[in-house]
Amino acid sequence: MPNTLIIYSSTDGHTKTICRRLTNFLKDGNEIKIIPLDEAKKFKLSEFKKIIIGASIRYGKHSKELYKFVDLNKDVLNQKQSVFFSVNVVARKPEKSMPETNPYIKKFLKTSNWKPKKIGVFAGKVDYPNYGFFDKYIIKLIMFITNGPTDTSQSYEFTDWSKVDEFAQELSLSC
Questions:
Q1: How far is CA 41 from CA 36, 38, 46, 66, 103, in A?
Q2: Which of 8, 73, 131, 144 could disulfide-link to 136, CB 3.0 to 4.6 Å?
Q3: What is the pTM of this model?
């Protein structure tokens, strides 16, 4: 049985990519299982030593399913070496790139009442060419309002992969 469970809640797959990147640093003698949030209810969380949850933001919110999952499993999560990170485009701005300053992290932790042992936040990706019509133009509007890129013919990845790697290295040492 793996001793680390990584659960991701991802709208377009970028959070899953970050979760896979974390495994490069966590494999040192550890067995790791990566699963989407909708499969997490099939697993007994108490059997894992470390539980990492990564979640993306869409239209300013983490998914309702994430809140439900955390609420149902809060006791186990608070007893384990639990980790949470959020992936959101607002984290592209230096003043919102830390857990203490990121509005989505602050709101999630306050609302969920979960106390992860370690918290991270990473800037995400805007992938206009792969969005449907509605998402493309709503996200373009949001980017316009927040001074982000609005050329819908391109993708924009804001993830600082060295920050992801540093976070993963800290996880491998501290949790």
A1: 10, 7, 12, 11, 28
A2: 131
A3: 0.92
Range of the domain at 143: 126-158
User: Which spans in the chain are helix H?
Assistant: 14-26, 64-79, 103-112, 133-145, 161-174
- Going by pLDDT thresholds of 50, 70 and 90, the confidence category of residue 171 is confident
Pairing assessment for the beta strands 125-127 and 118-122 based on DSSP bridges: unpaired
Do residues 27 and 85 both lie within one domain? yes
The model's pLDDT over 87-143, given as tens digits with 9 standing for 90+, comes to 999 999 999 999 999 999 999 999 998 999 999 999 999 999 999 999 999 999 999
Q: How many domains does the chain have?
A: 2
- The CATH number of whichever domain residue 13 belongs to comes to 3.40.50.360
